[in-house]
Each structure stands twice: as C-alpha cells, then as structure tokens.
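Below: protein 1.
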Amino acid sequence: MEQILDQFLHYLIVEKGLSKNTIDAYSHGLNRFLDYLRKKGIQEMPSVSKFDVRAFLLALKKQGLSTKTVLRNLVAIRTLFQFLIQEGILATNPIEELESPKISKTLPEILTLKEVEQLLEQPNPQTPLAIRDRAMLEVLYATGMRVSELTHLPINQVNLEGGYVLVFGKGSKERIIPLGSEAMKWVALYLKAARERLAKGKESPFLFINRSGRGMSRQQFWKNIKAYGRRAGIRKRISPHLLRHSFASHLLEGGADLRSVQMMLGHVDISTTQIYTHVTGERLKKIHQRYHPRG
C-alpha cells in the first residue's frame, strides 16, 4: 500500500500540479488511513470497503478532530480511490455512495474599516522593516490574497504601472487582482527606500524579503501582524486570514458582485464565497434592529 501511496502522491505533483501544502495534507491524512487499515489487518486496497472508511472517519471524530478535518481526510481518500480506478488497480469505487459529513458554516470574524485603518497604521515608516510591513499589510488588505501567496509573491508579478498583481494560487491557478492606490504607493516606497537595504546585495525572486535578504516566511509575517494587532488595541484574534475575510466582506458591503469577489479570492466554488454574503446580511440585520423604529 505504501507503493500505491507513493505513486498517487507523484501523480498529484506531476499531473495535478497541486501545491506543497496540499500534497503534505493528503500525505498526512492518507498515512493515517493506511495505519488504521493495517491495525485492522487489511493489507491491500481492493479489500477496503465503505464500512472501513466510515469506521475510520468515526475514529477521527472520536479523537476530537473537527468535522472540517474529517472531511479533508475523506476528500483525500476519495481522490485516492478515483486514482486507483483510473490506473486499473480497482474495478469499482467502494465509497462512491458514502455521504460526506455535514459542515455547519460558521460566519468568519471580520475587522471594521476603522480597525483595518488602525492596524495598517501601526508600522512606523522610519525603518526598512516597518516600510516593508506597511506595504505587506496594504497589499494583503487590497488584494485579499492568502498569506502564502503574499510571502511568495515574485517581484516580477507586480505591475505598478498597470496597478495589479498576478497571483498563482491553489493548484497553480492564475488570477489577476487589482492593487489599489494605497497599496501601490506603499509598494513603490518599499521598492525605492527599503528593499535594497534589506537585500544587502543578495538576489531574491520574491517581492517581500526579511532582514537577511531572503523571502519572508509565513510564520514571521503571522507574528508581525499579531504584534501590530495588539499594538492597535484590537481585541479580535488577528491573523492574515482575518484581513482576507475583511477584504471580501468590505467589497460586498460596498456593492461588489459575488462573482468578481470569487475571482479575486481564487475560490473554485462560488458557494465558498457566499459565506461572506451572510456576514454582510448579519451586519444589515444589526443596523436594522438598531435604527428601525420597530426593529
């Protein structure tokens, strides 16, 4: 079964072009699944039934894992079985009719516009690092990109004249996102006054670099944004994803159409984007209750 797993992961990398993070998640989940099968005495994939998969998912749930994590494991298993049928290793899919666990859609927390402004104004633009951080925060809020997309944004995919960035997201899918005047202003300042001083003569393909002249890590930026959130006095749990949520919600509140926001966020399925309409709906209900005479 280990050989089959190796072939499958190679297929995901070479033919599907999935990201390293996705490959790691699939590998982790499927190794956990294979360990479970071995403990049950199952040594070959053709011997696996839908009852084995269901029992595995229930075991994950009993371990206290969230429904979302259980569903991710099921997606990995489904994709593996589809691969096995495609390769002729299996004749039928034993989990074709297995239902996915239902996920209750929780509304994402967002920042108010005032809180966003307070957060963005925290870096004091007197040092190269602070100018870089202000530029990163501005770009994150202006584009709604994922933190991994921000920290790995190649410098040659930023077009300040055109006012957009070219982003390769999950599954190497390409999308163009407008930058906006404020983000363009801060990126231009960063390129003019900070990046060369941080690079110290080193070459890096990435727009945003650390004090050693290398690309920023997600962990470092995560620490930075949390520190700026504390300094701003914001009590919400600050994370890069919180700015992504806020970007989407503020666009929809301003009248943007759902399809455009979906394209900018890089969501494959528009139902993923629709959760932000619930956020704006909740906000409208609160406004109605507060100001309507019979609210």
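Below: protein 2.
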Amino acid sequence: MRDYNSVGQRLAHGWRLAGRPEAAAEVIREFIRPAVRAVPGAIAARLKPCSVLLPARLDGPDVVSRWVETEAALEITAASEGIDAHDLALELLVCVGQALWATTSAAERAAWLRLLRAEIDARVAGEIDEEALAEKRRLLSSPAAASSRRRLEAYARTAFAGTVAEYIHCLWHDVTVREGPRHLPARWLRERLQMLARWFPPGRGYRLWAG
C-alpha cells in the first residue's frame, strides 16, 4: 500500500500533498510540484504551512478550488477531474494569491489600490483574468457602484489574487502575454508584476524576465 504521508508527498517550502491525491502522478510531477517550487520564499513565509488536497471534485459543479485557514495550516483544495493540468496548477496559485491578500499590510493595500486607480484613470478595460474582469465591470457599472467600498474591495482582492498567480506563473515558465480588450495591456501587467517582485522577490534560480 502506498504511503501518502511519505517523503514523496512533500512539496517545496515545507508544504505537502495531503490525503490521497486523485490527480495523476504525472500531473503532480510536471505541474503541481514546479508551480509550488516557483512560489517565492517571501510569499511562503507570509502564509501558514500549506496542505494541498487534489480530490476528483468538490461539492458543486461550479466550485473548482477553495482554501481555508486553520489554526495550524493553510489548506488548499483543487478539483482535479476534467481540468487541464496546467489550469489545475493555476487554480492552486490563485488560492495562494487569495490567502496572501489576507496578509497584506495597510501600506501594501494602499499601493495596490493606487495602481488600480491609475489603470482605471487610463481607461484600461481589460483585466488579469475573467473573475477580475467581472469584478471590475461590476465596480464600474454605475457611479453608485464605483463609489462602493465593498465593490472596490472585492475588485482589488480578486485582481490581486489573479496577479499573484500570474506572477508565480511567469517565474515557473515563459508566458505569452495575452492581447485583446478583455486582457490587461502589457504595460500595466508589467507594472503589477514589478510591484509584486519588489514585495516578494523571486527565489534563487528564478527570474521574472528572461535574458
């Protein structure tokens, strides 16, 4: 019988695969492990020790990942059935970004909001991913919505999580910048990634930009 609490289930940063992962061993080896290794140590240090669970599915068909913080650990769960292996790793990284937002200081949040405000003032319509795009459109749907602190917080949190995932994604391997009105223009993407690189420098052997 395979021991799922063995050394083979350990990940970088002291994180571990918990329970009995239902993702294929190749998916864990080629996608989950490299994605976790790319997480900067400064990010891992902000978070509690992380347990990653990879069941086939979660409670509902529309739920593909979630995270919860206990007294001892951060538990990230991502459904592995019917999802591309690369997308599975990105779901894990988005959860990392969501958990990281909860650790940000008042100064960091203020700096992040200033950057988002600069994008909005520059009439940047696109976003880092579909979830952030939806939150941005809700925020800008009316003057009343635009003045809502709750909507601004939801947008800032979602955009931050997606950007953290993309930052780690860029450290993990070369990434092609997506173009089009729904996507964040390269200039503004660079601004976000450089901000995160200042706060959470890449680990040894990783770099944000090639060359």
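Residues 106-199 form one domain.
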